[in-house]
Each structure stands twice: as structure tokens, then as C-alpha cells.
Amino acid sequence: MAKFGTWAGWPAYAIVLAVLPLVVTDPHGRLLLILITMYGVLALSWNLTLGFAGIFNFAQIGFFGIGAYTTGILVTRTGVEPWLALPVSGVSAVLASLVAFLPVLRLRGIYVGLATYVFSQLCIYLVLGQAGLTGGSNGIVGIPRLSLGDMSLRADGRIGYYFLGAALLFAVTLLVRVLTRSTLGRSLLAIRDNEALATSRGISRVRQHLIVFMIGAAVAGVAGSFNAFLNGVVSTDIFGFGYLTLLLSMIFLGGSGSVYGPIAGAVVVTVVSDALQDAGPWRDVVIATLILVVLWTAPKGLAGLARSAVTALRERRGRADRPPSASEPITHVKELS
Amino acid sequence: MSGISVIATSTLVLGGLYLLMAAGLTLIWSTLRVFNFGHGALLMFGAYLTWTLLNTTGLPLIVSLAGAVVAMAALGAVYEFLLVSPFIKRPNGDMLVMVATLAATMLLQSGAQLIWGPELKQLPPFGGARVDVAGSVVQGTQLVTIVLAPLLVGLLALVLRRSSIGLTVRALEQNREHAQLLGIPPRRVYLFVVMVAVGFATVAGALLGSMQFMSPAMGSDPLLRAFVVLAFGGAGSLAGTIAGAYAIGLLEAVTTYYFGLSWSPVLVFLAMIVIMLVKPEGLLHTRVRSA
């Protein structure tokens, strides 16, 4: 029963996710909730490689886009059952991740960043080059909506999409939590923090990194598919700078390397970005400034702030019964000088 | 015959532009051990600043460019102070700098959109000189790029080799701790390096802005090519960067000539990935890359 406390949050999390659309009923608010779930899923999956494994992975946006394009091409060209496109997109993103992983084999640190960034940009050129299949710069339009039986997921303010997104978010949160506490997660931290020691203890860097790379890509591919169904269109914007910076700001605002931080980041950045929808370039100015302020003042992000707040609270409570000693002399010295 | 001279011209022009970009990136990389993702946005800002100086003061183009270089170097100092030095000492600092410079790109791009608006702008050609080479004509900005880029980078190499500030830069490159033991203040060197790199990017931006229309996103393509140059020549060596820039220029000119504009970047990037797999330390470099 000792573990009860650690798992008690999960039903609460599920209940919050289930009740939210009943509280937020206007269509715009619902759309915002859906976007939060999608960005949350993406940020969580990206944080696996970027935060926990410490790989400079900038290909995640590419996997997201590849998932979206897979869905777009599948459902408009082959007439395959739309629901099937969701997992297939995950698989195609995993296949793409094998290509993107090649540079990780022999490169380290920042060079991986260069190679994976180039990979995402390469996706744009490939999409534009294969215009017959991908629609080139026009993108793919007319992607059919998902429906469950007779009910379209668009009905009632897109509530179906919300529950699909919320289910994905819940599943991915659980996945990340389980993964980070598993042997795989621990070995990733060991490689990130001291590669020589980890390798000497018998951990294969390439194997562990490949596994986490593929898991992250699969999640991003499914999220891309979700995005394609939600919007009904796919264009090369999906590989663009906008998504890249938005997601990075979510991860670093929430706290890279924390399990739940990116979700908090997704909530804050989505809401802020929506509030500034009409502000044009000012929106980017505000988000960029937000990233920088967080990097300057709280390098561990919101998660780090929350953790230190909890620690401070505990310390204060623990200190209540004995006289405060540490803080007093400091103020005294300040008064003197 | 004209095919070869067209390829040769565009090799020298593209190579020159990439050289100006990549030389700055290499310099920052080898001394600060961080990667500046904002270099493309700085190039763009430099180009727009040159345009403003030209159109508000009525100074000659080359003087406007010089003014923009000075102003951008000052901006580079601020850039170093706000985006690089706060993070460089922290654990995981190279990733933080990468994210901070990405945010700076966002800031500079949206800033340019706010300041200069969406309408198309272009700088006039640098000079009207023209040279006939085997049936094709090279003139104006292209000619200036062909001559100026190697000249500036050669000057930089000379400064690094001969002057006292160059010596301190190279000392920091080779052994940061030992250089500090000898009393070299790294902060001053970092500042110098970033200012020089931003100045070079400004020149590249003005040259590019005179050959094509300027836009807030105009820096992202040259930045990507500069990545490829670094992969090719091995980041951290100026000689490798020079060779890499012209090699990528040649590759791009040839592939554009034979396969068209939309396939050329794909082939260039594929070449980069293959090189990274086969010879990750760079084709012309022997140091193993572990960052």
C-alpha cells in the first residue's frame, strides 16, 4: 500500500480530463482544449529524447509532419479506413526515425542537432519535390473527418476529437511516467549524465537511444495523424519553424527532463498563443521573450519552480517547531552593512 | 562551354556567401563551444539595417553597409551578453544556448516584420563593374561577392594568426583552462568573436539582399547551407570551412544546373548525411567530434 500515494493522482488526472469539456462548452474553448491535448502529447514525446535522453533531437517536428502526411495520403488516395491511418502514421514515423537516427550513431551533442534539424528541413523539400503525391505547396485538402459509428467526432463542438486527444494524452503521460522509472529510463539518465561510466557498466548507448527515439517518433506520428484529421488539411507548414519554436517553448517553459512539466508548458503556451492570435508578429515576440525569461530565471522551468516551492514549504513546516536559525543572521548582517 | 562558366560563377558566388556565414559560425563554435542558431536571423537583420541606412541617410551603399556592420557588431555584443554568457557555464549549457538562440531568431524575425513591414525590398547592386568570362558575364554584386568574401575571410585568418587578440582566440580554442591560467579573460575573447561573426553575417546579408528580395525568413536557407558546410569541412577549422564552403557551392551549382532548383537542396543534404556517417569528423578534419 506504500505505492498508493504515488498512483492516486492518476484517477484524478483522468477525471479532470473527462470533466474539462463539460466546464468549457463554447466551441473556441473546446478547440483550445483539443490543441492543448495534441501539443501535450507532442511535447511529452519530444521530451523523452530531448530532456531525458539528452539527445539534441530536432527531427521530432519531422516525425509529426510525416505522420500527418501519411494520414493525408492514405485517406485521400487509397480510401483506407480512417481509424487505421492513426496507427499506420505512427509506424511510418518510426520508419522515418530510423533514417533520422543514422547521424546519432556516430555523432554527438550539437552535431546531432544540426543533422536532425536538416532532416526536418529535408522533409519540406521532399514534399515539395513529390508534388504529384503530396500536393506540393498546395498541400493535401479534403481529408475526411473521423467518425464513430454514425457520430462524427466533429459533432457537439468537436467533443469527439477532444476525448480522442485526451485519451492519447493520458496514455502518453502514463507511458512517459512508466518509461522514465523503468530500467530503460534510468539507463538513459545514466548515459546522459555520464556516458563513459554508463557504457562501462554495460549499457549500449546506441541501443537505448534507438529505442527511445523510435518510441518518441511513434507518438509524434500518431499526433501528426490526429492533427491531419482535426484540420482536414496538411501543408508544409507542419514542418515549419512555427511548430518547432512553439513546442520547444512548451518543453523548456514546463521544464525539460521533468515528466509532467511539458504538459504545464503546453497549457500555458497554447493559451498565451491563442490570446495573442490577432496580435500578428507580437505573438512571436511575446512567446520568444517568455522562453528567454524562463531560461534566465528558472532553467528547470515550471516543474523546477513547483519542486522548489514544495521543498521550501516542507522545510518551513519542519522548521516550525524549532527556532529559525539559518535565515536570521543573514538579515542581521545585511542591516549592519 | 557556357554551362561550365555558369557553374563556375555560381560556385564562386554561393561559396562566397556560405563562407561568410560559416566562417562566423565556425569561429563561435571553436571558441565558445556553442552553436548559434540565430546566425541566419542576424544575417537578415543586417541586410534590413543596411537598407534603412541607405534609404534614410542617402549615404552610398558601401558606407551604409559599413554602418550596418558596426551597428550589428554592437547588437552582437548584446546578443552575447544576453543569450550566450548566462548559459554557457551551466550544465547542459550548449542545449540552453541553442534554444535561446532559436528564441532570438523568432524575436529578430518578428521584429523585422514589425519594423520593416511585409512589402518586398531589395538593395541596389554593389557597383557596376562587369567581367566577361568565357561567354558569360559576371557583374555587380556577384563580382563583389566573388572578390570580397575570400578577402574578408583571408583577413580574418591573418588576424587570427598574427595579432595578439587572434593569439588569445586560438589559445582559448585549443585549451580553455590553460588559456585562463595564462590570464586570458575568456569573456573579452567571446565578445570579440561574436561581434566579428555577426559583422560577417551582416556583409553576407547585404550581398544576398542585393541579389534577391529581402524577407524576414531570408536567413534560414543560408543558415542551413552553413550547417552543411560545417559538416563538410569539420567545424572548428577555418581552412576546412573555406574548402567546405566552395565545395558545397560547387555541389549546389552543379545539381541546380542538372537537376533543377527543387532537387538541389535534397541532394546537398543527402551528401551531408552521407559524409556525417562515413567521416563524422568532417572530410578535411581529423579531430573526433564529441561535443
What does this structure look like?
The complex is a heterodimer of chains A (337) and B (291). With 337 residues, chain A is mainly α. Chain A has two domains: 25-239, no CATH class; 240-305. Chain A has helices spanning 4-7, 9-23, 27-52, 60-78, 82-106, 109-129, 131-134, 155-181, 183-193, 195-200, 205-231, 241-254, 261-275, 281-297, 301-319, 327-336, and strands spanning 147-148, 151-152. In chain A, a hairpin with a 2-residue loop joins strand 1 (147-148) and strand 2 (151-152). In chain A, helix 3 (27-52) crosses helix 13 (261-275), helix 4 runs antiparallel to helix 5 (82-106) and helix 4 packs across helix 11 (205-231). The longest helix of chain A is centred in the middle third of the chain and has 27 residues, at 155-181. The radius of gyration of chain A is 22 Å and the shape is globular. Chain A starts with a helix and ends with a helix. Residues 323-337 of chain A have low confidence and may be disordered. Chain B has 291 residues and is mostly helical. Chain B has a domain at 15-216. Chain B has helices at residues 2-32, 39-57, 61-88, 93-116, 140-162, 164-174, 176-181, 186-211, 220-233, 238-259, 264-278; strands at 130-133, 136-139. A two-stranded antiparallel ribbon of chain B has the order 1-2. In chain B, helix 3 (61-88) packs across helix 8 (186-211). Chain B starts with a helix and ends in a 13-residue tail after the last helix. At the A-B interface, helix 5, helix 6, helix 12 and helix 14 of A face helix 3, helix 4, helix 9 and helix 11 of B.
The total beta strand count of chain A reads 2
**Weakly predicted, low-confidence segments of chain A:** 323-337
Adjacency order of strands in the biggest sheet of chain B: 1-2
Mean pLDDT reading of chain A = 85
| N→C terminal distance of chain B | 45 Å
> Biggest β-sheet of chain B, characterized?
2 strands, antiparallel
Average residue-wise pLDDT of chain B: 86
Strand-residue proportion of chain A? under 5%
Please give the oligomerization state of what you see.
heterodimer
Structural class of chain B: mainly alpha
Rg of chain B, rounded, reads: 19 Å
Q: Give the tally of structural domains of chain A.
A: 2
Radius of gyration of chain A: 22 Å
Number of helices of chain A: 16
- What summary fits the major beta sheet of chain A? 2 strands, antiparallel
- The ordered string of helix (H) and strand (E) elements of chain A is HHHHHHHEEHHHHHHHHH
Shape of chain B: globular
Strand content bin of chain B: under 5%
**Low-confidence parts of chain B lasting 5 or more residues at pLDDT below 50?**
286-291
Straight-line N-to-C gap of chain A? 54 Å
Keywords (chain A): Cell membrane, Membrane, Transmembrane, Transmembrane helix
Protein name (chain A): Branched-chain amino acid transport system permease protein
Membrane topology (chain A): Multi-pass membrane protein
Main location (chain A): membrane
